[in-house]
Amino acid sequence: MANAKPYKLPLPHVGGRSAEFYQFCKQHELRFQRCKGCRAWRHIPRDMCARCGSFDWEWSRSSGRGKLFSWTTAIQPMMPQFAGEVPYSPVIVELEEGVRMVTWLTDVKPDDLQLGMPLEVVFDDVTPEMTLPKFRRAA
Ligand code: ZN
């Protein structure tokens, strides 16, 4: 849990429904909203289902498994905090439930990324208050 170095990268802005999402991450649970009307999963958190218009939903636990949907590789740091990180690849993971999220991979270098590669969630407790859901290559 304890990191040797203080975490210096920007943290997500947390509020409203996203605060609930990150609270589950802090418990090392990946949960997404699921509509009680049409059973569709959704992410980023919001009050209304885009498919059926229902405001009735619940936080449902994800399997945490998915595949690499897309990525980009930053060669130049876009912010000074990332100077020590380049090259790095923010990725989009598509979970088994169908939702997609922007995240990081912990164990795959940019040159080794493969479209559709199987991934699983890991939780990185970057500060005492913030846990980030990241992904690693699945067995
Ligand atoms: Zn719905």
What does this structure look like?
This protein is 7% helix and 31% strand. By secondary structure, the chain is mainly beta. It has one domain (17-137). It has a five-stranded antiparallel sheet. A three-stranded antiparallel sheet has the order 2-1-3. A hairpin with a 5-residue loop joins strand 1 (31-35) and strand 2. The two termini are 23 Å apart. The model has no long low-confidence stretch (mean pLDDT 95). Bound molecules: zinc ion.
What ions, cofactors and ligands are bound? zinc ion
- Tell me the total number of β-strands: 8
Global morphology: globular
Q: Approximately what portion of the residues adopt beta-strand conformation?
A: 25-35%
Number of domains: 1
Main sheet: strand order: 6-5-4-7-8
| Global structural class | mainly beta
**How would you sum up the major sheet?**
5 strands, antiparallel
Helix content: under 10%
- What is the alpha-carbon Rg in Å? 16 Å
Distance between the termini: 23 Å
Order of helices and strands: HEEEEEEEE
Low-confidence stretches: none
Chart the SSEs and their pairings.
Elements: H1 17-26, E1 31-35, E2 41-42, E3 57-61, E4 65-71, E5 91-95, E6 100-103, E7 118-125, E8 131-137
Antiparallel strand pairs: 1-2, 1-3, 4-5, 4-7, 5-6, 7-8
The structure holds zinc ion.
Q: Which structural traits does this protein have?
A:
five-stranded antiparallel beta sheet; binds zinc ion; 1 helix; 139 residues; globular; mainly beta; 8 strands; 7% helix
Task: Quickly describe the structure.
The protein is 7% helix and 31% strand. With 139 residues, the protein is mostly beta strands.
